[in-house]
Design brief:
With 324 residues, this protein is of the alpha/beta class. It folds into 2 domains: 152 residues, 3-Layer(aba) Sandwich (Rossmann fold), CATH 3.40.50; 140 residues, Tumour Suppressor Smad4, CATH 2.60.200. Helix content is 21%, strand content 36%. The chain is built from 8 helices and 17 strands. The strands form 2 sheets. Strands 1, 2, 3, 4, 5, 6, 7, 9, 10, 14 and 17 form an 11-stranded mixed β-sheet that branches. Strands 13-12-11-8-15-16 form a 6-stranded antiparallel β-sheet, with no helix packed on it. The chain is globular, with a radius of gyration of 21 Å.
C-alpha cells in the first residue's frame, strides 16, 4: 500500500500564475539579473503564464530597465496580487521565504526560494539553477513539501482581571521567548496540556518546528528534526540548570508558557515580529491549521541538503577537497 506521506511529498504540480518577491536590500544589479532570468525562463516556455511582481520588488529592480517586458506582467501590492498566485518565487534568504510562508499560508500558495542569502536551508535554487531548475518545475512540477507551522497567542489580564488576547501570530521556524536589552535571566513556567513540565531560568526558550530545528535551535544544541515528524521542539537557551535539555512534544498537545519575571522579556516569531511581555502573560502555542507549502525540485533530498549545508561531507583532517 502506498504511504500517504510519500504520495503527497511526490505530488506533481504545474503552475500558470506566478508571483515574484524579493528581499528589499539586495544589490540592484544582482536582483535585475535574477528577475530577468526568471522572466526569460518563464516566457521561454510559453506566453500563457501570468506573472505578478510585488510593488516593492518592482521598485528595487527598476522594472523599466528590463527590455522587452511582456504585456502580461502585472505589478501590484501584496494585497492586490496575493489571491491570484499559485506559485510564489522568493528571491533572498531563508528570512524572505519565512515571511512569504506566513503571508501565503491561508492562500495555500506554493513557494520556491532562490537563495541570495547565506545558508539557505529553505531556498533550494541558486542563481546558476534558475534556467534549468525553474524551467523543469514549471514544465513538469516538483516535490511539494507541506510544513507544520506554529500558531500562538499571548494572553494578558485586563483591568477587569479578564484574559484578553494581547498578541497573536504564525511562525514557520520558531517562537522564541528571550531577554531583550537586559542582563537578568528570563524566568518561565512551562505546561504541556494540563501537565506542569518545568520552571526554567536562563536566556530564554525556543519552541521550534521541524523546519526551524536547523535555525536558531540548532545553534544552542537542539536536535535536528525531520520535516515529516509532527512535533515541536522545546529548546532552552543557556539554562541555569545544567540538567535542562531539549524535549520534543507532539503537535496535538497545547504548550503554555507563563512569564514569571518578565521585565525586558520579548517574544519573537521567526525572529521577524516581536512583542514585549510582562509578568503573568501566558503564551499559548499549538499547531496552526495552516501549513507552508514549499516546492522543491524533483531531485531534492533532505539528507543531501543536511550534508551540503552543514558540511558533513568534509573531512576535517584531510581538508575540504576530500569526502568521507
Amino acid at each position: 500500500m502506498t504511504n500517504s506521506l510519500t504520495f503527497f511529498f511526490n505530488m506533481i504540480t504545474k503552475y500558470s500564475s506566478i508571483g515574484i518577491f524579493c528581499k528589499p536590500n539586495l544589490p540592484v544589479s544582482t536582483l535585475l539579473y535574477t528577475v530577468e532570468t526568471i522572466l526569460s525562463t518563464i516566457y521561454g516556455i510559453g506566453s500563457n503564464f501570468k506573472v505578478y511582481v510585488e510593488t516593492e520588488t518592482a521598485k528595487c529592480v527598476s522594472m523599466e530597465q528590463i527590455t522587452d517586458l511582456p504585456n502580461n506582467v502585472v505589478i501590484g501590492t501584496f494585497d492586490e496580487i496575493k489571491n491570484s498566485i499559485d506559485l510564489a518565487i522568493a528571491i533572498g534568504g531563508d528570512g524572505t521565504l519565512l515571511g512569504l510562508a506566513r503571508e501565503f499560508a491561508r492562500q495555500k500558495t506554493h513557494i520556491v526560494g532562490i537563495n541570495q542569502g547565506r545558508l539557505g536551508f529553505t531556498t533550494d535554487l541558486d542563481e546558476t539553477d534558475i534556467s534549468t531548475e525553474l524551467e523543469s518545475l514549471l514544465r513538469n512540477g516538483g516535490q511539494v513539501d507541506e510544513r507544520d507551522m506554529i500558531s500562538l497567542k499571548v494572553m494578558r489580564k485586563s483591568a477587569k482581571n479578564e484574559d484578553e488576547v494581547f498578541f497573536s501570530g504564525l511562525a514557520l521556524n520558531d517562537a522564541v521567548v528571550n531577554r531583550a536589552a537586559i542582563s537578568k535571566m528570563v524566568e518561565l513556567d512551562v505546561w504541556v496540556e494540563n501537565s506542569f513540565l518545568h520552571s526554567m531560568r536562563g536566556d530564554g526558550l525556543i519552541i521550534c518546528t521541524p523546519t526551524g530545528s536547523t535555525a536558531y535551535a540548532l545553534s544552542v544544541n537542539g536536535p535536528i528534526i525531520h520535516p515529516k515528524l509532527s512535533c515541536f521542539g522545546l529548546v532552552p537557551i543557556a539554562s541555569q540548570a545544567l540538567s535542562s535539555r531539549p524535549i520534543l512534544i507532539p503537535t496535538d498537545m497545547e504548550i503554555t508558557i507563563i512569564i514569571k519575571n518578565g521585565a525586558g522579556t520579548v517574544l519573537h516569531c521567526d525572529m521577524q515580529t516581536v512583542t514585549e511581555l510582562k509578568d503573568g502573560d501566558r503564551i499559548v502555542i499549538k499547531k496552526a491549521c495552516y501549513s507552508a507549502k514549499l516546492l522543491h525540485p524533483k531531485t531534492y533530498d533532505y539528507f543531501s541538503l543536511l550534508r551540503k549545508k552543514l558540511r558533513w561531507n568534509i573531512n576535517p583532517i584531510k581538508g575540504p577537497d576530500e569526502n568521507f
